[in-house]
Amino acid sequence: MPRRLATTYSGRIAAARPSPEGPSLTVTVAPTPPPTPLDPRRHPVCAAARILRSQASPTPLLDLADYLRSLRLTLTAAEASEVVKALSPDPPLALAFFRFAATSLPGFRHDAFSYNRILALLFRARADPAEALRLVADMERDGVAGNISTINLLVGMGGGGAEVERCLEMASKWGLRLSGYTYKCIVQAHLRSREVSKGFQVYEEMRRKGYKLDIFAYNMLLDALAKAGMVDQAFQVFEDMKQKHCAPDAYTYTILIRMSGKAGRTSKFLSFFDEMVSKGCALNLIAFNTIIEALGKNKMVDKVIFVLSKMVQSDCQPNQFTYSITLDILATEGQLHRLNEVLDICSRYMSRSIYSYLVKSLCKSGHASEAHNIFCRMWNSHEKGDRDAFVSMLEVLCNAEKTLEAIDLLLMMPEKGIATDVSMYNKVFSALGKLKQVSFISNLFDKMKENGIIPDIFTYNIMISSYGRVGLVDKASELFEVMEASGCKPDVVTYNSLINCLGKNGDLDEAHMLFKEMQEKGYDPDVFTYSILIECFGKSNKVEMACSLFDEMIAEGCTPNIVTYNILLDCLERRGKTEEAHELYETMKQQGLIPDSITYSILERIESRSQRTVRIRKPTRISGWIVSPLR
Q: Where do the PPR repeats start and stop (predicted)?
């Protein structure tokens, strides 16, 4: 039922009786007046919106035209504006109706107000600015002069530069005077387009004319000036702001503190901070982080920790960024020993994820001792561990060659609810192998299997390589057989590790047989495979076999690298084959390989060999022979 515009009642007091609850009144009400008549044109507006929103008809605009014809009504521009407002949840439909009304309704003509309505709708919907320009072209074609609101909307929808100039030209053409709000829109348009200098020029012009911005626009201008490095201009705007009685808020001070801190103006940002607190501005997370960052850039570690304590006292919970900038400050100033002090201050907010972040950050930056300290605090503070933190700590211990601690951590992970996996074990196996601690490898391998973790190809490769490094050929060969029996297929790396182990421990024939087996099983030897065997044959004085393998390598399409050439050059030099060595060096250069320090060292030996002193038989009065250098 339609709501009446207003309803009034009149009456008189018929009786009054006292009672414990208070006086009781009896009121006689006059007869209800007749209902106020409805606006006779209100119904067509509602009906038009209902017809256009209907999903039943495929042509709602034509249905609307038929409806209006049946009523013998022509919509006014104000009524069309109301229809557009009713259709605001569906901007494309509202725009379609707007254009339909102008082209298909007899006698209809939009005015500036209806154009402003559709422009405002497009502005809120973040429509393409080109659509607004088409509407402006329609206005000019139909001779509709816009008002200052039209200019404000167009400036707000567009960017800076040429678009603002076009809007100003239209304002001049329509004889409009720019308002303070228009100037504000122009300033913001320039700032959105990162035209900070132009925005500041417009601001100065509006200031001369006695206009002022609101707090939002002031903050937007201050932020843009700060980011553009226009520090003095920002200070000027801030002073203007106070003179215009626009009270700065927490965001204003945050901008100024950040800007002053980056510019190294310590006294300035400290005074802004004091002013902010004295004016009762509530410091939020962003404000505290900004202050801490500014203090850090100016190497004021004590004040950083003081502000952090005030932050916690204000029940403002530090976030990851807070800890990140604090950590950077302490590390830069060489005061990571104060990290425990920071953690004590923030103890009630120290979550598992924050501990994990700190451990990972310290690990990445190479501060292993501090990372271990934080990790121990996390271990004692939380029943459940964080997987990422545990993995980071494991990597740090392995890289620091603290293998016993790494093994202990690996075996204690389940106590904190962290399920260990094969990749974790592989990290420890690799560290043990590099340190040749193979006895620990064997024990850990047994515990790994006891815990139900199945070794993968990387596990076997690491262990075979580790056994080979200490000369345990039988162990390496046995593990290779265990690997095949378990259904884990070896790869080229596996064969390379075992061939290297066999060859360098004197089992060259066995290594060569494994090489052939590798080829028979369909594995393509890589440059590392060939380099291993060439080196082993060379050290066994089997130069012809080494050269044969080198030729085979090239024939199989495996390109030798600088290491391969160095190995064969060294082999030829040791056997005195200087001519072949020179030929090989020329081949290497033709391949585009750049000699390294090892190459030059071998070449020097080759040259010195060719110039070595030799015995020359020459008759003298002294019996025997003398040694004379060959010049």
A: 111-146, 179-213, 214-248, 249-283, 284-318, 421-455, 456-490, 491-525, 526-560, 561-595
Helix (H) / strand (E) containing 615: strand 614-615
Q: Phi first, then psi: what are they for 25, rounded to 5°? A: -115, 145
Average pLDDT of the chain to the nearest whole number = 84
Is pLDDT above 50 for 616?
no
Distance CA 537, CA 549 (A): 9
| Full DSSP string of 458-524 | HHHHHHHHHHHHTT-HHHHHHHHHHHHHTT----HHHHHHHHHHHHHTT-HHHHHHHHHHHHHTTPP
Q: What residues form DSSP beta bridges with 24?
A: 17
Look up residue 385 and give its amino acid.
G
Query: In sequence order, which residues have a C-beta less than 8 Å from that of residue 109 and are 6 or more positions away?
Result: 77, 102, 142, 144
Pairing of strands 24-29, 614-615: unpaired
- Give yes or no for residue 69 having a pLDDT over 50: yes
Amino acid at 400: A
Distance, CA of 593 to chain centre: 39
CB atoms under 10 Å from CB of 103, counted, come to 9
Integer Cα distance of 68 and 64 in angstroms: 6
| Structure confidence by residue, pLDDT tens digits, 511-531 | 889 889 888 888 888 889 888
How far the first Cα of the chain sits from its last, in Å, is 123
Q: Cα 126 to chain center, whole Å?
A: 27
Q: Is the pTM of this model over 0.70?
A: no
How many angstroms from the chain centroid is the CA of residue 16? 76
DSSP string for 25-76: EEEEEPPPPPPPPPPTTHHHHHHHHHHHH-SS-S-HHHHHHHHHHHHT----
The domain ranges of the chain are: 423-523, 556-631
Count of C-beta atoms within a 10 Å radius of residue 174: 17
- 423-523 has which CATH code? 1.25.40.10
User: Distance from CA of residue 112 to its chain's centroid?
Assistant: 46
In 10 A of CB 346, how many CB atoms? 19
Using CB atoms within 10 A of its CB, is residue 272 exposed (0-12), middle (13-18) or buried (19+)? buried
Query: Could you give the CA distance from residue 602 to residue 234 in angstroms, rounded to a whole number?
Result: 67
